[in-house]
Amino acid sequence: MDMNSKKTSSSVASQASRALRSSSTSKIQRQLAGSALSQAKSGHQTGKKMEGVASAALNSPKYSSTTKTLAGSVLSQSNKNR
To answer: Cα separation of 61 and 19, whole Å?
Structure first.
């Protein structure tokens, strides 16, 4: 399996942290924020389920720019072979 060595940037990690602390954050944004933060300082890759969630968020016009930023970060850290 080819490992993806990308990590969440500090600016995206800050957005993710703010999203998790806000009471108005949607469920999908919380999922993406948690995934992005878990990859900020580790070598973890995005799992198959989160790839689907992130892809759906990017392809939908109903999500905010913050949600799409988090989704893009999460997808960029997915397994290269999937």
So the answer is: 19
Structural domain that includes position 33: 10-76
What are the tens digits of pLDDT across the range 10-62?
Answer: 999 999 999 999 999 999 999 999 999 998 887 788 889 999 999 999 999 99
7 Cβ neighbours under 8 A, 6+ residues apart: 39, 40, 41, 42, 43, 77
Q: Is residue 1 part of a domain?
A: no
Helix 48-59 / helix 65-76 crossing angle, nearest 10 deg: 140
Number of domains within the chain: 1
